[in-house]
Amino acid sequence: GRIVLSGHLDRMSESQRALVREGLDVYKNIRGHLATGLPFWPLGFPGWRDPWLAVGTKVPDGCYLIVWRRGGAGACRLEVASLAGLDIGVSLLYPSSSAATASWHREAGALEVSLSRPGQACLYHLARK
Predict the structure, then answer these.
(1) Which letter, b or e, does each residue of 66-94 get, where b requires 16 or more Cβ atoms within 10 Å of its Cβ?
(2) What percent of the chain has pLDDT over 70?
(3) Helix or strand or coil: residue 102?
(4) Residue ranges of E strands in the chain
(5) Among 18, 79, 111, 115, whose Cα sits 20 to 30 Å from the Cα of 9?
(6) Using omega within 30 degrees of 0 as the cis cutoff, is the peptide bond preceding 60 cis?
(7) Cβ contacts of residue 14 below 8 Å, gap of 6+?
(8) What pLDDT does 17 receive?
(9) How big is the chain by its Cα radius of gyration, in Å?
């Protein structure tokens, strides 16, 4: 739950720097929740060559989920058993310009995420309505 910036930040384009700024702003808004949240891995612990990775943080009103498509099919289903049966609103927090889509399956307690290409990652907030 901490930000680590590395690499040649000074060589980034303006659009890349804007993504970094947006990410830092989102982090500043949610870091209080992250400090007290409980981590979980909806796809299990990631393997070295897994096409999808996901890590979540359970918070009092729901959870935060980071989803990263490294390869494979364009959609992934993430089980969030603790939210099964609940009316959940799904908000894309980062990046705001993403073409990612997500839909909540209430009875199964699952979030279906679609990312158009490998290398994409998104941060979602799932909260009780």
Answers:
(1) ebbbeeeeeebebbbeebeeeebebebbb
(2) 99
(3) strand
(4) 38-40, 52-59, 62-69, 75-79, 88-94, 101-105, 110-114, 121-128
(5) 115
(6) no
(7) none
(8) 94
(9) 15
Give the type of residue at 45.
F
Give pLDDT tens digits for 79-119: 999 999 999 999 999 999 888 999 999 999 999 999 999 99
In angstroms, the CA 89 to CA 38 distance is 20
Q: How far apart are CA 98 and CA 79, in angstroms?
A: 22
**Total residues belonging to the chain:** 129
Mean pLDDT of 55-66: 95
Q: How far is CA 71 from the centre of its chain?
A: 16
- φ/ψ of 4, rounded to 5, equals -130, 120
The pLDDT confidence band at residue 2, using thresholds 50, 70 and 90, is: confident
What residue has token string 């290409």? 117
